[in-house]
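Researcher: I'm preparing a figure for a lab meeting and need a structural model of a single chain. I don't have an experimental structure, so a prediction will have to do for now. The sequence is pasted below. Please return the structure as tokens so I can convert it later.
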Amino acid sequence: MKLRSIIVEDEETSRQILKNYLGKYCPNVEVLGEASNVEEALVLIRNTTLDLVFLDVEMPYGNAFDLLDKVGDIDFETVFVTAYNHYAIDALNAHASYYLMKPISIDDLIKAVDYVTEIKIKEEALQDQVLVPKTMSVNGKITIPQQNGFEVLETAQILYCKADDNYTEIFLDNNKKKLVSKTLKYFEDALSESGFARVHKSYLVNVNEVIKYVKGKGGSVVLSNGKEIMVSASKKSNLLSYFK
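Model: Understood. Here is the structure written out token by token.
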């Protein structure tokens, strides 16, 4: 699958190195343009249909996060390329698909492109389709601790779980919710065989309740109750693998 891309990088030498690497090691990436600052990049993005943007963090007259804010809702993947590792958390919060350190490792570049390719193939396969999970709803049960004992829930009743520090909010299909003194990681492990997928650092969803996938800044899913939940770029491929 061809990935239409641009390179946003203020250093001409760095742009050329990345472009050469892509041409030699990632032949499915088609570089449609280059930009050296935020304003040039904004013009390219608004006038080009893109799958992928290679984005340097530090640039003249603004940085990568300023650019993404100006773009608003997006339907392309971003791979951050930077010499500074302290931007990793910000990149994650900006829903970057991958984070590459300079000097660029060819192996890491190939992994980044392969990851984005996999996402795009899955997104195209799901385009305009009613989502049908590969996993069937499991009529299992889970116990949740309470002060005076525990409560038993049917896993099929759970729509999604939301992290709340060291607690987890469990949202049920009867519009009720439970606050449990367990971490979201605990429920991710406990429900891993019951058709639940971690889509974000703060959310675990029942994939049988997902009715729609929305491409955009990171992407999102819509559940049967109308709740829309953002999908982290790092979790997107795993989520999409649940669907035909």
